[in-house]
Target: GDT1 family protein
Amino acid sequence: MDWQLLSLSFITVFLAELGDKSQLAAIALGGSSKHPRAVFFGTAAALLVTSLIGVLLGQGAAELLPQRAVKAIAAIGFTILAVRLLWFDSEPEEEDA
Model:
């Protein structure tokens, strides 16, 4: 097993998930539930399944497409997201009268 890749993946996902809406949902469910262990196991299972799906889709894309194409698609996607976030306002601002 590649321990460096394992630790890098763990750290990256751990930091990305802090403060995520799934964490906020887990906090809300855990705080209002009489069975916090059930909330823990449910959220852990959900994260494992979504991660499994992501890895399988990534592996499938890597087998079907050349690495250069995958990198180009990712770069174009992130560029489009950045442009939309920086220059396009989704809701017009209301002016105070």
Q: What stands out?
A: DSSP finds four helices and no strands in the chain. The chain has one domain: 3-87. The radius of gyration is 19 Å. Residues 3-87 form one domain.
